[in-house]
Amino acid sequence: IANAGDNCTADSVDFAQDVAALGVDAIMAVVPYYNKPPQEGLYRHFQTIARSVDLPVILYNIPGRSVVNMSAETTLRLARDVENIVAVKEASGNLGQIADICHGAPEGFEVLSGNDEDTLPMMGLGATGVISVVSHVAGLRFKEMVEAQVSGDHTRAHAAVEGTVRDQQSHHGEESTRTAGIPRGRTTTAAHRGHSRADPRA
Predict the structure, then answer these.
(1) Smallest Cα–Cα separation from 16: which of 5, 32, 1, 31?
(2) CA–CA gap between residue 7 and residue 29 (Å, rounded)
(3) Catalytically annotated residue among 34, 36, 60, 143
(4) Known catalytic membership, residue 36
(5) 60 in active site
(6) How far apart are the first and last CA of the chain?
(7) Residue of 93, 98, 95 lying closest to 116 (CA atoms)
(8) How many Cβ atoms sit within 10 Å of the Cβ of residue 74?
(9) Of 65, 132, 167, 172, which is least packed with CB atoms within 10 Å of its CB?
(10) What does the pLDDT look like over 15-59, one tens digit per residue?
(11) Which of the residues 33, 36, 89, 143 is marked catalytic?
């Protein structure tokens, strides 16, 4: 999946066609950032991108980064009107909006979590999976969580979540230490602890 989205529709079309020629399986296009288009502008933007390629297209709604939120109505309109728009990566954190998309989606349209921490509650609403970040450091455990939730084994899913959080915290601690140039292992001095705390803000 190639991320071909941009805040310029013409550029996004060019990017999408370029990566399509490389043989990718699908493209993902983000809500345009910075220029704050209205909902009709979002509809036309994604419609134009999708119709420019013969590939599945995943919408990416992340208002915390792009400033504009794509409404459930716009997402569903695109899902119904444009055949090759097949999914949305939803990172709005708005569970009411996500529930509306899940309940109104046409058959075959997938709602995917764009925030790792929202995956379980979103799947409870009808989402089918996640495009994940934490899976890079805790892939098997996160996969276990998703599979357990799909099978209805919620106890095992929650246990996997707790393990994933521990893995993520451990990775962040190691990464902070490595980036600060501190040898791995025990760091007992105040100076070392101070560097480790300060590093994530660098």
Answers:
(1) 5
(2) 10
(3) 60
(4) no
(5) yes
(6) 31
(7) 93
(8) 20
(9) 65
(10) 999 999 999 999 999 999 999 999 999 999 999 999 999 999 999
(11) 89
Residue whose pair of structure tokens reads 């390629």 in the numeric block? 53
**Rounded Cα–Cα distance for residues 15 and 22 (Å):** 11
Helices 95-104 and 72-81 cross at an angle (nearest 10°) of 20
Long-range contacts of 76-82 (CB under 8 A, 24+ apart): 76/100, 76/101, 76/104, 76/105, 76/106, 77/43, 78/43, 78/46, 78/47, 78/50, 79/105, 79/106, 79/109, 80/106, 81/47, 82/46, 82/47, 82/50, 82/51, 82/57
The set of residues, in sequence order, having a beta carbon less than 8 Å from that of 71 and lying 6+ positions away, is: 39, 97
Query: How far from the centroid of its chain's Cα atoms is residue 123's Cα?
Result: 14
* Distance, CA of 76 to CA of 103 (rounded, Å): 10
pLDDT at 10: 97
> How would you classify residue 68: left for phi > 0, otherwise alpha for psi between -120 and 50, otherwise beta?
beta
Residues 6+ apart with CB under 8 A from 6: 12, 15, 32
Whether 58 and 75 have beta carbons less than 8 Å apart is answered as no
| pLDDT mean over 161-179 | 54
Helix (H) or strand (E) segment spanning residue 2: strand 2-3
Q: What is the pTM of this model?
A: 0.79
How far apart (Å, rounded) are the C-alpha atoms in residues 97 and 71?
A: 7
